[in-house]
Write a structure and sequence with these properties.
Blueprint: H1 6-16, E1 19-25, E2 42-44, E3 47-48, H2 49-64, E4 70-74, H3 79-85, E5 96-100, E6 104-105, E7 107-108, E8 126-127, H4 134-140, H5 143-149, E9 154-159, H6 169-178, E10 182-188, E11 198-202, E12 205-209, H7 219-223, E13 230-239, H8 240-248, E14 258-264, E15 267-273, E16 287-290, H9 302-308, E17 313-316, E18 319-322, E19 333-336, H10 343-349, E20 359-365, E21 367-370, E22 375-384, E23 389-392, E24 397-399, E25 402-405, E26 407-408
Parallel strand pairs: 1-4, 1-9, 4-5, 10-16, 19-20, 20-22, 21-23, 22-24, 22-25, 23-26
Antiparallel strand pairs: 2-3, 6-8, 7-15, 9-13, 10-13, 11-12, 14-15, 17-18
Helix pairs in contact: 1-6
C-alpha cells in the first residue's frame, strides 16, 4: 500500500469501492481448549483474529479513503458472543455487518433420524452445515441486497483463522478486467496439506474435490503431491450479482454434499455439510489462481500459534509479514505434543517469545518448558521421558540438538 504510484492508488481506490470482505466466523475454539468463538483467541501482541482483521480493513479504508465493509458469517454457536465483542469496534473506521448461517438438525448415524423433535430444541441437537451455506444465508439475511445497494460488486471470502487472507488488488484487478464470477486461490501442496481439497476438471467445468468424497481405495492417490499438486486455500473472490443469480435459480440444489460423521458424548451422528469452494461449478468464467504460500497461514493448533508468536513474523497494520531476516521463505515444521494442545497449557510452558529465524524442524513431546528468549536453529527435538521433565532456561541456544530424558537445565 505504501509504495503505490498515483495511477495505481487511484485504481486501488476504484476497486476497493466495489469490494466487501467476508470472514467465515462460525467456528468455536474448542479444539484448542478455548471457550467461545475461535476468532476471539489471542494470536499475537494480545490481538485476536478479529482484532487483526479489523486493523487490516481499518488501514485499507483510511489509506484509500473508502468504505470496505467487514461481513461476519456467524453460526448459532458464535453469534451472541460476536455481537457483544464487535461493540468495541464501533468507532474504528470499519463498518461491520453480521448475519447467521443456517442450522441443521443432527442425524443419528444408525437410524438416520433427526435428534431434534421440533425447531425450538436446544442447540446441542443442531449443527451449522459448513461454509457452503454462505450463499443462501447471505441472500436470505438481506445482507447481499444491502451490499448491492451500497454499490458493491465483489465479495472476498476467507476463513477467519487464515491470517494471510488479506485483500489482494492484483487478484481483484484481474477479476474486474476478465469478468470472472468466481476465483479460488489455490497454492502448491506440501506433505502437510495432503487432506486439502483440490480443483479438478469434470465434464468441462472446474470442480472442488474434497478428501471426504474420495472412495477409501483412492485416498492415497488423492493425497499424492505428484498427482494433485495444488489445494484450495478457501480464499474466494466472488461476484455478488452472480451469487444472487445462482441462489435465485436454485443451482445449489446439486452442490456436492459431504458426509461428516461425528461422535458427541459417545453418540454417533452424521452431519451433512457443504463447502463454499464447491460452488465454483455454478459460476461463469470460474477459475483457480495459484498464489504464493504466503497467502495461506491458518491457525488450527498451538503448533501454528508457536510460529505466529515467534520472531518469524512482524505485524504491520494487522497484517503478518514474514521477517526479512529469515533466509528461506518457508515456515518451519513445528510439532508440539499433547501437553501443549490447549492454549492455557501452551501458555504456561512458554516463558516468552522464541527465536526461530533459522529453525527448520521442531518436535517437542512430554513435560517440557521453554524459558523466554530461547533460540532454536536447524532441527531440534526435545522429548521428556514419561514421569520426567525438561526445562530449557532463558537465553538458551539449541542448534541441531536432540534433548531427551529428564533434564533441569540450570543457569550458571
Amino acid at each position: 500500500m505504501a509504495h503505490l504510484s498515483a495511477p495505481e492508488l487511484e485504481r486501488s481506490r476504484e476497486l476497493a469501492s466495489k469490494l466487501a470482505v467476508l470472514k467465515l466466523n462460525g467456528g468455536l475454539g474448542t479444539t484448542m481448549g478455548c471457550v467461545g468463538p475461535k476468532s476471539t483467541i489471542e494470536v499475537t501482541n494480545h490481538l485476536t483474529f478479529l482484532d487483526l482483521v479489523v486493523k487490516q480493513i481499518q488501514h485499507l479504508n483510511k489509506t484509500l479513503n473508502v468504505d470496505v465493509p467487514l461481513i461476519l458469517m456467524n453460526s448459532f454457536n458464535t453469534h451472541d458472543d460476536t455481537l457483544k465483542i464487535i461493540e468495541k469496534y464501533q468507532h474504528q473506521g470499519v463498518r461491520i455487518i453480521t448475519f447467521n448461517q443456517s442450522r441443521y438438525p443432527r442425524i443419528f448415524q444408525d437410524s438416520l433420524l433427526p435428534e431434534a423433535r421440533d425447531i425450538t430444541g436446544g442447540d446441542e441437537s443442531w449443527y451449522p452445515p459448513g461454509h457452503g451455506d454462505v450463499y443462501p444465508s447471505i441472500v436470505a439475511s438481506g445482507v447481499l441486497d444491502q451490499l448491492l445497494s451500497m454499490g458493491k460488486e465483489y465479495l472476498f471470502v476467507s476463513n477467519i483463522d487464515n491470517l494471510a487472507a488479506t485483500v489482494s488488488f492484483e487478484i481483484l484487478d484481474y477479476m474486474d478486467h476478465e469478468k470472472n464470477e468466481f476465483i479460488m486461490e489455490v497454492t502448491d501442496k506440501t506433505r502437510a496439506d495432503i487432506k486439502g481439497g483440490t480443483l479438478i476438471k469434470y465434464h468441462g467445468k472446474s470442480k472442488l474435490l474434497e478428501i471426504a468424497q474420495v472412495p477409501k481405495e483412492h485416498v492415497s492417490e488423492f493425497k499424492s503431491i505428484k498427482k494433485f499438486k495444488i489445494f484450495n486455500t478457501n480464499n474466494l473472490w466472488i461476484s455478488l450479482k452472480a451469487i444472487k443469480r445462482v441462489v435465485q435459480e436454485d443451482s445449489l440444489k446439486t452442490i456436492d454434499i459431504i458426509q461428516n460423521p461425528k461422535v458427541v458424548k459417545s453418540v454417533r451422528y452424521l452431519q451433512l455439510e457443504t463447502a463454499a469452494g464447491a460452488a465454483i461449478e455454478f459460476f461463469n468464467k470460474a477459475i483457480g489462481i495459484n498464489v504464493p504460500r504466503s497467502r495461506f497461514l491458518p491457525v488450527k493448533s498451538t503448533s501454528d500459534l508457536f510460529a505466529i508468536q515467534s520472531d518469524l513474523y512482524k505485524l504491520d497494520h494487522g497484517t503478518l509479514i514474514m521477517n526479512p531476516e529469515r533466509v528461506f521463505p518457508t515456515v518451519p515444521v513445528v510439532k508440539l505434543g499433547s501437553e501443549f494442545k490447549y492454549v492455557s497449557d501452551y501458555q504456561k510452558r512458554l516463558g516468552g517469545k522464541i527465536n526461530i529465524l533459522e529453525l527448520d524442524h521442531l518436535t517437542i513431546s512430554g513435560d517440557v518448558y521453554l524459558g523466554p528468549n530461547v533460540t532454536l536453529k536447524g532441527t531440534v527435538i526435545i522429548v521428556a521421558n514419561e514421569g520426567a521433565r525438561i526445562d530449557v532456561p532463558p537465553g538458551s541456544v539449541l542448534e541441531d540438538k536432540v534433548v531427551t530424558g529428564h533434564l533441569r537445565i540450570l543457569d550458571h
